[in-house]
Amino acid sequence: MKNSSLYKGSLSTIILKLLEENDRMYGYEITQKVKELTAGELNITEGALYPSLHKLEAEGLLQAEMVHIGNRMRKYYKLTEAGKKETADKLAELKGFIEQMQVIMNTNLANPSKA
Hints:
This protein is of the alpha+beta class. The chain has helices spanning 5-8, 11-22, 27-37, 46-58, 81-110; strands spanning 24-26, 62-69, 72-79. The chain has a three-stranded antiparallel β-sheet with strand order 1-3-2.
């Protein structure tokens, strides 16, 4: 299940949740945190991450800040006020979806002949 379409459809929610918990993060840091939290089961590629970050920024949900680190620049992302609200909305929506999936899965597991 390394890069399942289920994860890909949830990438913006994953990004928003991580930024909610960590205040600000840069792209590579996000990929490594996801890998750490999922014990390597989910690997977010740069090709998937950066378009999502740019889309969220364009929608006004993220704010980017360039910071000098040594002799290079690093782009940090953080939630805007609209991003904080969107995060709460997306997490509530995801929670409801998971609950409904559990109902469906538990019903089918309890009655295998109906699956």
